[in-house]
Each structure stands twice: as structure tokens, then as C-alpha cells.
């Protein structure tokens, strides 16, 4: 739980970022990811439309229709990234503004805002110091990792492969995969997310082209059981490989 009356701090996350920058390897990167998906971030605000005055307690209460604009960072190619920081020290390493307004936002809200905005390239963390960029594709993988962590920590979460694989989905996806030579294997597993149960299709693919994942996703979506969500992630992601370790793929390229 975040105490909004105290300055935001993420000491473990800050240390993990430094560790990855100094010693990049799979173990350190996975430890960083596990902290990222549970973190809250400090987002500087560029504008608040119709900001009301403070009440008698010194609090400003925003109405539901208040429009808030967050700071964006343009890279060398003029692509726009949502800016976020681990703490005030990181924010002030980029700029010092006595009138700085910020919003503390959890990982899920930050990523939802990025993925829902076609104009954004992704999310940039700690711009101006130990900067990390996350594209929308990487954010999708981070969300899948968080879902798997939630599954592991939930005593009621379904484990392993689904009791009954939806045969129509498996057949349809297998048929599509026959026309995608870059994919050599595919697995189907089940995990529990905060939104509800979700099928996860793991693709062992030589291509990270978005069109490969879109073809599989569009096909699978037509056969999802009611109330079941869908995630598609590459086998190259460490947590994906761990999730299907020892499980038989439903598709193997001939």
C-alpha cells in the first residue's frame, strides 16, 4: 500500500536498475522485471485543466471529468514516450522545478495508459539518469510476467495446463501456424490474473514481427470460452520458457 502522504521511494527497484546497467544478465533482468511490475511510479504532470482550489484541509479533489496531461519525452526520432520516475531524486536529476506537479501511479495504470494511446511509443523510466525505455511490445511481456507471478502467489490459481484444452481453438491456431514458418512450436497454458482466468499461448518463433502474434491472437480470440482472456508471448522470454517447462506443445512444425 502506498502512503500518499510520504514521498515515493523505490529503493529495491533503484538498486535493481543499477545492477542491470552494471551487470546485464538474464538473472538480474528477471529480478528487475519482478520489481517493475509491482512498483508505483512518479509521473510529472504538464497540465491539469480546471484545477480546483484546495479545500480547508489543504487538499485538492479532482472531479471525474478533470483532464490531466502528463509529460512526454521525445527521442531522437521524434517518437513520444510517457515519462515516469522511481522517486523524486530521479525526477530532480532530470529537472528541478519548484512548481512540479506529479501523480503516483501503479504499474497497471501506467501500462494501460501507454497501450491505449496510439501516439505513444512506450514508457521511459528515469529519463536523464539511469534511463530505461519500454516499448509497447515489452510492456505486453511485462504484463504477462505479472500475471504469471500472480498465478504463482495465489493458492486458488489453476496450475499447469488447462484441464480441457479448447479443441476448436487448438485446431484453428495450429492451422494458422502451419502457414507461419517462423513458428516451430506452440504451447497453451492457463493462468489467473486479477481480471480473471487467461489462456496463454507461448510461441517458439524466430520472428518477433507483430503480424505473427496478431494472426495467432485474432484466430484464437474467436474460440475463447466465455470469461477467459488471452495472452500471447514468445518462448524467448525467460518466464515463458519456465511456464511451459515439461509441458507438451500442442503444435510442432513438421
Shape: elongated
* Oligomerization: single chain
The largest β sheet comes out as: 4 strands, mixed
**Strand line-up across the major sheet:** 3-4-6-7
Secondary-structure-derived class: alpha+beta
Cα gyration radius (Å):
21 Å
Question: Topology as H/E string?
Answer: HHEEEEHEHEEHHEEHEHE
Stretches where pLDDT is under 50 for at least 5 consecutive residues are 1-5, 57-62, 154-164
How many strand segments?
11
Give a short summary of the structure.
Helices cover 34% and strands 24% of the residues. The chain is α+β, with helices and mostly antiparallel strands and 254 residues long.
SSE layout and pairing:
Elements: H1 11-22, H2 26-36, E1 40-48, E2 68-70, E3 72-74, E4 80-84, H3 88-94, E5 102-106, H4 107-115, E6 120-125, E7 132-135, H5 136-153, H6 167-178, E8 183-192, E9 197-205, H7 210-221, E10 229-234, H8 238-243, E11 251-252
Parallel strand pairs: 4-6, 9-10
Antiparallel strand pairs: 1-2, 1-5, 3-4, 6-7, 8-9, 8-11
Helix pairs in contact: 1-2, 4-5, 6-7
